[in-house]
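Entry for the shared binder. Reason: the reviewer on the internal report wants the predicted structure included alongside the sequence.
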Amino acid sequence: MTDGSTLADRIRRYAIERYVRPARLAERRTVTIRAGDLHRKLGLTGRAPAVCSALGSKIFARLAGVVLIDRVGPRQSTTTQFRYSLEPDADDMVAYPVRAAAEPPDAVKSAGIDVSPHSSAGVVGWDAAGNRRLFLVSRVKTKRSRPGKAKEIYVSDWFRKARALVEREGCAWRILSAKYGLVHPDDVIEPYEKTLVAMRAAERRNWAGTVLEALEPCLAEADRVVFLAGERYRELLEPSLRSRGIVVDVPMRGLSQGRQGLARCALA
């Protein structure tokens, strides 16, 4: 964007100006936004995941002075509807855009790099060199027997090490799942046995397309993706990411998903 705003900024600003403010002026108690309507009015193509991500975020709720009551429809679709209650004393858009909850390193700011995008608010994370990174971690076979948060349902030694690695560095991350596609670490999921290795080529291509679509909100702000994942999980994602100008790091390329691989991961 020419004004330095991100796509998420545009989506939130439009939703506030065209939906929330009119509803507040009309003294309504609730407002409903259909993702597809906003998507169309903004002239977007194929960005429904980004719209849903922005409308469902805590950042939007805080900026707009609303509370999300319910979310009806698929997780990321043009048919998804968001219904909010309007906080009576809220003063929306007091300071827009908001600073990210966690700030990039001092070295980044002193170098004059723009720190205003919401890049560390659970979407991507800064490294010491000023790169905005997202880690993609593949699932592993060992799982708990009951539903739970994705970051807790995989209990293998390797996965725990990968999780500890990204969380210790304060990095944003997502899990690559053969069944669910792209999974947020806090998403609650059911245990399963599906693997990419057992999928046919056409199924893997469909899986990759679903993952790339779900990645859109992150890719709008990230400039570097780091894979802690095996070749089957990377083979169709990596070329697409590179074609978009995203720098892709695979610190474990050619190594087993074990102690040696994680010990070699360079995060600088």
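Summary line for the report: Confidence is low (pLDDT under 50) at residues 91-123, 126-130, 257-268.
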